[in-house]
Every structure is written in structure tokens, then in C-alpha cells.
Amino acid sequence: MLVVDKNLNKLPRRRTDGAIIIRCRDSPAGKGAVFKLNATQAGPLMIKRSNGYERQWRYTCPRCSLPVAYQNVPHPIKSGPYIYVIWGAMTMMQGKVPQEAWEGEDEVHEGMDEA
User: Fold this and answer.
1) CA of 57: how far to CAs of 6, 31, 45, 84, in Å?
2) What is the DSSP annotation of 37-103?
């Protein structure tokens, strides 16, 4: 689904949601990554953040339709400076779930028990 010339574990993460940041283009701040994302374009989505709202154009898995990445500008992919890979949405090896994919799972279940 994603082929990239960088190690995902070494790329920076977004403070807002922990997504992995992939730079799409060269800039004074750094060189853009070489990557190919095989995902289905989904419609825009408004996400509430602490300082307002953020519009995301999502990309979903072509097999299961779960969201795997997004960008903050309209499609096509690489049309903006960055693409964000949703944390835990992808693995380094097919069929093997990374341990960090379960980060925060306990907090989610505790919140559900209280409801």
C-alpha cells in the first residue's frame, strides 16, 4: 500500500494526532520523500481541534476502506507539502500488526466503560 524511501519510525509525528509526516516536496526545510501510496481517495472531512477545525482529504485502504492517510489540501496525492499517515494504520510487514498500533487502546475502552 505504501512504498517510501524513508523509515516510517524515523519520520516526525504530528502533535495533534500522532500521524507520521511525509514531506511531499523539496523545500528549504528539507528534501521531499520519494513514495507511492496505493489508496482510494475519500471525500473531505472536518476534524475538530483544540484551536478550531481542520479539513482533511482522506485516503482509504482499497480492500477494507479504513482510513490510512490524509492531507490538508484537495486531491490528488502530493498536491500539498505533506501527507500524514495515520498512526497504527500501516505495518512494516504485511500481516504483522505492530505493537504500537494498540497505543491508547486502554484509554478508549476505559472511556467506553464509563459511558
Assistant:
1) 23, 23, 6, 10
2) E--EEEEEEEEEETTEEEEEEEEE-TTT--EEEEESSPSSTTSSSEEEEPTTS--SSTT---GGGGT
Backbone angles phi, psi at 92, to 5 degrees: -75, -25
pTM over 0.70: yes
Q: Strand, helix or coil at 9?
A: helix
- Going residue by residue through the chain, which has 115 residues, state the pLDDT in tens, using 9 for 90 and above: 898 998 888 999 999 999 999 999 998 988 999 999 999 999 899 999 999 999 999 999 999 899 999 999 999 989 999 999 998 888 766 667 666 666 665 654 454 444 4
- Cα–Cα distances in angstroms (integers) from residue 14 to residues 31, 40, 110, 111, in the given order: 18, 22, 25, 24
Q: Is the CB of residue 77 less than 8 Å from the CB of residue 59?
A: yes
Give bridge partners of residue 83 from the DSSP assignment: 22
Q: What is the rounded CA–CA span in Å between residue 96 and residue 90?
A: 10
Identify the three-state secondary structure at position 8. helix
